[in-house]
Amino acid sequence: PGEPEAKVWNRPPIDCNFPGGVELQEIVKYEFLEAKYLILETVAEEGAPLQTREEIYEINRKLVESHNRGPSGYKLQLNQFAHLTADEMKSFKGLRLSTVEGSKPHTHVDDDEVEELAKHLPDSWDWRDHGAVTRVKNQRMCGSCWAFSAIGCLEGAHFLKTGELVELPEQLLMDCSWDAGNGGCLGGDMSNALNWIKEVGGVTTSIQYGRYYAENGRCHLDKKHLISPIKNVTQVARSVNALKVALVNHGPLSVGIATPPDFQLYKNGVYKPSEWGETDHGVVLVGYGVLNGEKYWLVKNSWGENWGMEGYILISAEGDTLNILDSAYYVTMQ
């Protein structure tokens, strides 16, 4: 009572004529009210005036409509992030590339070998078709993208080595790899994580370690049940062909990318923004191809299936779009 009315997006009506329908309606009503008052909250980035959730949503609505009327090869949509500021979106990323000397893995560079192997690559590749990619996961509001990127790479390498696709625990890296320079929900570096796994001797399965909580926890790694021991962690040379060769021959890659403001609202198409900033998000590269004449990288994100193309994004493979060539890694197994 007394609160101003807020415009909110419409939710489809709930059919209550089934067992549990009335209870479901009450849950939806509660969520609706919660969303309404969420919109009425005020937020402000440093040095910026206060904005209500409704104002932020309206800004993004206009951005989506304006962009989608243009000639761009990709589309945007209003999604679960449409009411968040760019500053708030940092909590859904978390990549902090290490600058410590000697902390980076060795880079294998043999230009002649890469170019020769590239001649025999298929026109397109998708590791999902070959069984090396687990379901799309959701890091939620926790800066743990680096853990999801590293684990996605390791899951693929484990599959190539054993023929078994097993879900491995991001929570383990968040809880246990602090001495490698990572900080759980506060951010980390996937190369640090992969090298930590190499030193420890592997990880356990998600079932053995426990589910993902989207918060920092106490390490309870049981080293008696380690699997997926890593022999080497290698950084891929900074070229399109080197990335393709590494991807096809070594499985899904752990990569870092930059995320411009409209990245959070991506819907479909080949994402090719006009500009971007520093690398700030860890993802998993699982394939490449061509769509309507545009070459792309197929990338698995960790924002759930409701984002993008059921959790995936097509990133332009023209040049070093989003810095995708700068921080790419694969592992070889023992």
Domain tally: 1
CATH architecture label name: Alpha-Beta Complex
User: Regarding CATH, which class?
Assistant: Alpha Beta
CATH superfamily annotation: Cysteine proteinases
Q: Looking at CATH, which topology would you report?
A: Cathepsin B, Chain A
Q: Helicity, in percent?
A: 25-40%
Spatial gap, N to C terminus: 64 Å
Task: Summarize model confidence as the mean pLDDT.
Answer: 88
Helix/strand structural class: alpha+beta
Query: What's the SSE pattern?
Result: HEEHEHEHEHHHHEHEEEEEE
The largest β sheet comes out as:
10 strands, mixed
Number of strands: 12
Backbone shape: globular
Q: Total helix count? A: 9
Note the beta-strand portion: 15-25%
> Which residues sit in consecutive blocks of at least 5 with pLDDT less than 50?
1-23, 26-34
Organism: Lygus hesperus (Western plant bug)
Keywords: Disulfide bond, Hydrolase, Protease, Thiol protease, Zymogen
Family: Belongs to the peptidase C1 family.
GO molecular function, one term: cysteine-type peptidase activity
What's the layout of helices and strands?
Blueprint: H1 21-40, E1 42-43, E2 51-52, H2 53-69, E3 74-76, H3 86-89, E4 107-108, H4 111-118, E5 125-126, H5 145-162, H6 170-176, H7 190-200, H8 206-209, E6 230-236, H9 240-250, E7 253-257, E8 266-271, E9 281-291, E10 294-300, E11 312-316, E12 328-333
Parallel strand pairs: 4-6, 8-11
Antiparallel strand pairs: 1-2, 3-8, 5-9, 6-12, 7-9, 7-12, 9-10, 10-11
Helix pairs in contact: 4-9, 5-6, 5-7
